[in-house]
Specification:
Blueprint: E1 4-5, E2 15-16, H1 18-25, H2 28-40, H3 42-48, H4 54-80, H5 90-108, H6 116-144, H7 148-180, H8 184-209, H9 225-231, H10 234-263, H11 269-297, H12 299-319, H13 324-335, H14 340-360, H15 365-393, H16 406-431, H17 438-466
Antiparallel strand pairs: 1-2
Helix pairs in contact: 1-8, 2-7, 2-8, 4-6, 4-15, 5-6, 5-8, 6-15, 7-8, 7-11, 7-14, 10-11, 10-14, 10-15, 10-16, 11-12, 11-13, 12-13, 12-14, 12-16, 14-15, 14-17, 15-16
Length: about 475
């Protein structure tokens, strides 16, 4: 596959090769290392070690997800209207850094005595800083790669580094315990230190490694009416609906992961952490596979296959035999489909962004990725709140583990495995109707190149005339 140049075109000179692309994707490592523990480790840590009630935790996470619902679309709108001498995306990436670092410190260094209000405040600020950086980064990534296959490559790197960040941070608690004798709480604080130290370095390297591509000419600036236009389009609604269905299941499974493996499988948190590490090793192995399969058979078909595979893998956890070997095999295979959704849905939304720009004359990529990022948080907000609240409603107590009532353990198993599998199958059915394939996108790109060249030429003639 040809390299991707800094201006987003295929070229052999000035190309964005492997090392520059790696540097560009590097911020995904600490951002993932920030987000993964927030969903997977912190609810369990706050409940079990710091004594915060499950209801307070679920309410705080639910509220912050609803805050996120409007945050990402708003940021996407503002990014589309940003035009500074430093670029369109870089100012937002830099501005989100100090907010995210401060919030990470307060969340991961929390001590006994905190309550739901403390968690809510720092979650809000943490998601604000993270969203500012991530929205700018993902929109910038979409602009780097204009062609159908290139986008799968860029977002494969994006997702690969995201999974790498998850692997690093998930390895910390068990390795800290085994290698240094640190307890679980110290392992959680080590995660926070990793993010605080690595996020500034990663963002700096990305800014230095890659220049922003020139923004395409717009016939009109983005405005709020464009959101209404976008959500009326069936093709965009299909992507958004698929993202909700395919993104909510892993959030539910992640939230309940430690509860399930401690209470039902009998693993302690360090052992369960190693299983989760294997799950994301599988996800890292699968990342390049889904990008290549998407190019070979179409992104939507590859995503449908991955979604069905995820459903089967999730259900297999319920019937897998006891024992370390089966745990290793099951969790590694279950992780293989994980990366497909983030890679292929982002690439498909970027393709639809070209189609939208051809129709409207407006680059709405920030708006579109704001919607893509925001709508999945609808499902996530409901998922975290509903899953932990359901456990509490059926009498599940985190500190009782396997001593919980049979009914509570049954609800835990269904919520962890069956619900995510059903959501994945629904997502697979929905995405099969996607119609923008490589041939159609190639025609769109040709039309855009012709129009952009004509508009640029007209602007240059007008400038010379005025001069």
């Amino acid at each position: 596959m040809s390299a991707i140049s800094a201006d987003g075109k295929n070229s052999g000179q000035g190309a964005l090769g492997t090392w520059r692309l790696a540097a560009f994707a590097l911020p995904c490592v600490p951002v993932a290392a920030m987000l993964m523990p927030v969903v997977v480790y912190l609810p369990n840590y706050y409940a079990t070690d710091l004594g915060v009630s499950l209801t307070a935790i679920g309410l705080a996470f639910g509220i912050v997800r609803l805050f996120d619902l409007w945050l990402d679309p708003t940021l996407g709108f503002l990014i589309d209207r940003t035009n500074t001498r430093f670029g369109r995306f870089k100012p937002w990436l830099v501005a989100g850094l100090p907010i995210a670092v401060l919030a990470v410190w307060m969340l991961f260094m929390a001590r006994p005595g905190i309550d739901g209000n403390y968690i809510l405040l720092w979650l809000v600020l943490g998601f604000l800083g993270q969203s500012m950086a991530t929205m700018a980064h993902v929109t910038w990534a979409a602009r780097l790669a204009p062609e159908y296959g290139q986008r799968a490559r860029v977002f494969s790197w994006w997702q690969g580094f995201t999974v790498l960040g998850m692997l690093i941070v998930l390895a910390m608690p068990p390795l800290m315990k085994l290698g240094f004798g640190l307890d679980y709480g110290q392992g959680v604080r080590a995660m926070g230190w990793f993010v605080v130290l690595s996020l500034p370095v990663a963002i700096l390297l990305a800014l230095l490694a890659v220049h922003e591509p020139k923004s395409p000419p717009n016939t009109q600036p983005a405005n709020w009416r464009h959101y209404l236009d976008l959500i009326r389009r069936p093709s965009i609604l299909r992507i958004l609906g698929s993202d909700i269905l395919l993104g909510t299941g892993p959030v539910i499974a992640g939230t309940l992961f430690f509860f399930y493996f401690e209470a039902i499988r009998g693993w302690d948190r360090s052992e369960a952490g190693l299983l989760l590490l294997l799950y994301f090793i599988g996800a890292l192995m699968g990342a390049p596979l889904w990008g290549r399969l998407g190019l070979a058979i179409g992104k939507h078909r590859a995503l449908a296959i991955a979604s069905a595979a995820y459903a089967v893998a999730q259900l297999s956890v319920l019937i897998a035999p006891e024992g370390l070997v089966w745990g290793i095999v099951t969790m590694t295979l279950a992780g293989l489909p994980y990366s497909a959704g983030p890679i292929l849905l982002r690439a498909m939304m970027a393709d639809l962004g070209d189609e939208e720009r051809l129709k409207s004359g407006v680059d709405r990529s920030g708006l579109m990725f704001g919607l893509l990022s925001g709508v999945v948080k609808i499902g996530s907000a409901v998922a975290v709140f509903a899953s932990v609240s359901a456990l509490e409603a059926f009498g599940f107590k985190a500190d009782l583990g396997a001593e919980n009532a049979t009914q509570a353990l049954r609800v835990l198993a269904i919520s962890f495995a069956v619900v995510p599998a059903l959501l994945a199958l629904a997502g697979a059915a929905l995405i099969t109707g996607h119609s923008l394939d490589k041939a159609s996108h190639d025609e769109i790109r040709k039309a855009l190149e012709v129009r952009d060249a004509a508009q640029t030429s007209a602007e240059q003639r007008a400038t010379h005339t005025n001069y």
